[in-house]
Design brief:
Elements lengths: L2 H8 L4 E4 L16 E6 L1 E2 L4 E2 L4 H4 L6 E6 L5 E3 L11 H8 E3 L3 H18 L7
Parallel strand pairs: 1-2, 2-5
Antiparallel strand pairs: 3-4, 6-7
């Protein structure tokens, strides 16, 4: 998909949920008044959620950026059939973790995002 088509694909949405890191950067092109929810992997060394892309979001003032902190119960490792090489623990998280969002946590954070979108009063042309 071209870069233009990727931007066009997310522009109509008022709330986008995305994994952390570079893949979330496309949401910088969301419309003003929208909200982004970024799942956060746990940093194995610090045992706290990591926010790799946080410096970018400090400068985005026309929308809401929320972080969904994952916990161990939401992380499912899906290794390839061939045993992966010995890597630092953070690389296992990056390469082979599927995040299964908790329904109740997702609803709670979506409520915050949708409240912001409704309060922003930005009217969009949905063409």
């Amino acid at each position: 998909m071209s870069f233009y088509n990727q931007i066009a694909a997310i522009r109509p949405y008022s709330v986008v949920i995305t994994p952390p890191g570079g893949v979330s950067f496309i949401t910088a092109f969301q419309r003003p008044g929208s909200a982004t929810i970024i799942t956060s992997f746990r940093s194995p060394s610090a045992q706290i959620p990591s926010r790799m892309e946080q410096p970018l979001w400090k400068f985005v003032s026309d929308r809401l950026v929320l972080h969904y902190p994952t916990d161990d119960s939401e992380l499912v490792f899906s290794y390839p059939e061939q045993k992966p090489p010995k890597l630092p623990l953070w690389e296992y998280y990056r390469n082979w973790v599927d995040v299964r969002l908790s329904y109740t946590k997702t609803i709670d954070i979506m409520d915050i995002a949708l409240e912001y979108v409704n309060r922003s009063r930005v009217r969009w042309d949905h063409k």
